[in-house]
Amino acid sequence: MSGLGGGRGRRQESGRGKRYPSFPRGGGDARGRGRDSSRGRGPSGPPPQVAPTQPPAPPAPAISTSSTYHPSSSSSAAPLSREVAQKLVLEPQDATTARPRRPSSSKAIRPPSRPGPGTVGRKCMVKANHFLVDVADKDLHHYDVSIIPETISKKLNRSIMKQLIKSYKESHLGRRCPAYDGGKSLYTAGALPFDSEEFVVKLIDEGHNRASSTSARKEREYKVAVKLASKPDIHYLQEFLRSRHFECPRQTIQVLDVVLRTKPSENYTVVGRAFFSPNLGQTGELGNGIEYWKGFYQSLRPTQMGLSLNIDVSARSFYEPILVTDFVAKHFKNANLSRPLSDQHRIKVEKVLKGVKVELSHMEYAKTYKIGGISREPISQLTFTMNENRTNVSVVQYFRDKYKIKLKYASFPALQCGSEAKPVYLPMELSRIVGGQRYTKKLNDQQVKALLEATCQRPHDREENINGMIRANNFQGNALVDKEFGIQVQEELALVDARILPPPVLKYHDSGREKSVNPEFGAWNMFNKKMVNGGRVDFWTCVNFSIEYANMSEGFCVELVKMCNSKGMKFCQTPSIPIWSAGPDGIDQALLDIYKEFAAMKRSLQLLIIILPDQTGSYGKIKRICETELDIVSQCCQPKQVAKCFFDKQAARFRIRYFENLALKINVKVGGRNTVLNDAIMRRIPRVSDLPTIIFGADVTHPEPGEDSSSSIAAVVASMDWPQVTKYCGIVSAQPHREEIIQDLYKTVQDPQKGVVHGGMIRELLVAFFKSTGQKPHRIIFYRDGVSEGQFSQVLLYEMDAIRKACASIEYGYMPPVTFVVVQKRHHTRLFPTEDDQMDGSGNILAGTVVDTSICHPTEFDFYLNSHAGIKGTSKPSHYHVLFDENNFTADDLQLLTNNLCYTASCILCPFISFSSTLLRGE
Question: Model pTM?
């Protein structure tokens, strides 16, 4: 096979010195390809339809038309790029009676139309947290707003525009009540008496207000320019919702969304599309000076039933409005404030408080400052120059003389505000953190646990809270929404047609008592079952980093090995080297020593069982060292869970389940297979079983907030067997900071001897599939996680081009048909059962519930699928959106395939997305 090289996937043979049969030219399923395809692919088919691109998406990487391949290679980049361009861009289809508008970007891509609703499964009704919105036919106008001096605070901008409307509504605005987005846009339901106008607005500086007299208040003047920009068309939106247009009028939806958000933006703290306030629910402490506020998420969306307002309850972390000294005491677990801060603690305080606003309330009027840093010296050693007589004065003396305040914590450093040239030093004990500031740093494990416990709600409770939020908004009593713009929002959750898909039959080994199982309610166990293919572990050992449970390693390993063998694995009963024990401070050295000991024995360590330290926080570090530095397959175990197996006499059932779950994880990691879909064995999976098919899963994870230089990490996994589709191979790759498009799907490197060398994750996984199965993939199904709607066109264009080039680099004309599906987990749609027989024991909708009507896209191919059983809280369905489909999937075929694949791994969505996310976490 021309161009095949060694794969980077784990545990794949390098294949050096071996020859493989070549791929037949032009391979791929005849269906879904070629000039006679009913889906219109290829140069002779009807041109694709145009996708909405308002506002324009960021420029997508251009498809290279230069020759990126070696001249002697059988592949050609220019024809390939033309083929991609023909399939992915860009002529409007004559599918509408009205003349289509020109797309605002030449990279616009329209996803395929829905092939029709699914029919498989038991029909039922569910409720969704979507509220139908009716809009009157108003004459919408969009005006650009410019404020001088320019401000970056949306809260201040809203105050300025509120004062402008109050001052000029009668005289200059034609008695209109505009809606303002807090930035550059103003919207009205009818024309203003002018196309362009400038206004002067005087506003009292809130930072100098509070207890001061009127004469002491500081008044600022702003110049506001308002200019007509465009006229969004309600009629065009109505035509789109009736499927008479394919281009979504995003600007019109944006206008209506701003109108609905105007009142909440004035009353609550805005975080993205969500609103929070202590008045919207109970607040509570998360620890370390952080608290949580409850609130709601709100978004206007076009759906099959019309415009829908999606509302969901939410919670976020905020700084507690307390004195900075109290914050420091809480942050360091009641630290002794009489002692100075160490350099280590000072740096931590500066990192967590930099950019936070504080106010001084000891003055005649409250004044707000933004923390720029923490002084290195204690406040008792800080001096500054007085403006009056240019003399140096200590900060401690200044507060004693000026305000008659004796500082209690003079050994503490000061908060440093202002500029480097003219710093302002504030005592921590007099500075109170301003309320309503979101905490954007990463929460620690204890804070995450506290937030989840405080906000986890059963479906019925969540439904009631959502209803409470819609009532609190009182859209019908809002004059701007109801009277001015004519928007009506229903107050009942939408009733939606749904279906419950049948679970797949899972095949286990014939030597077990139960050779197959038909899961009920999305759950099953390994009782009386054996793994379909048990892995083999000859060389292994264990290391225990727990101090509290240091003596249970040996007994734990004996029971675990026993369970693995009973379920079909071949697991050596004795460790290859004695079991290790080490403290949490010796993790790096212990792992390195174990690695060296096996290397000295010239044996490959197949599995390292790790009992984690008692304190959380070491898991990521251990996985990083094992998986990326030492190339060790590891299985981590929580010490408290291990101890529960031995010390809790009433936990016999838990003990069995725990060891079973560990055995299943270990078996997959050492190359075994736990179960196989019976339909896969019988070759009854549409679009998969008839021809060799590879299924990819891809995801990108980004650094936590505050990490401005760390790389983002991309992970891609792919199936390595066919037709079973149960074994996977994964590759990870670093890429630029916060880059969502996966950069290394396909790449070329110039080698001085070999010339152009083709590589990249897609190519290497295709090669690994061929080495594993002896066949080339005739179809590609690509599940892509983590893509927002605004990135659809950009990601599809670049990543589809990379897939095409990876295929063509292997063999000329090799272009298997591709189905590209985005999987979204970070959405706010929740589904609630309407009848008792449609819910599981947790009160959630049943596993297999799928929705592809009403709340889904008006024309495109998408659906919500809840493939898992609810355990705690409210289940979140995954949202699948098909962006490209050359395999002609019907709704039933794709929904059943996706649901069935979820049963081949312990995950809540397509397993390929779960495994790619697992790779990113280091597992």
Answer: 0.84
